[in-house]
Amino acid sequence: QVQFVESGGGLVQPGGSLRLSCEASGFMFSVYTMSWYRQAPGKEREFVAGITRFGTTTNYVDSVKGRFTISRNNAKNTLYLQMNNLEPEDTAVYYCKADQLTPASWGQGTQVTVSS
What mean pLDDT comes out for the span 25-37? Predict the structure, then answer.
């Protein structure tokens, strides 16, 4: 059974940092490109960052470039997102996703709130 468990979110002040984790199970994690998505209340889910199977290629939505870093540990079946210099606009529920894994599967996500 495919499962994703996102964690690491919380309340942080603008300019602060958080490190998100996604523990995956039920499929061969190491062969899939992985991505982070986020969804704010009343808005559609958007792509945030992606990483290929060995972590050699990454890409980011323009709004987080230079602030967020995606990484992975294939031995632990875990995906990470280091978020620095957080802004209120980063407030959302963050989810991880495996590219080309069907049917699509989503975890509960982890809430990130950036507020003073």
Answer: 97
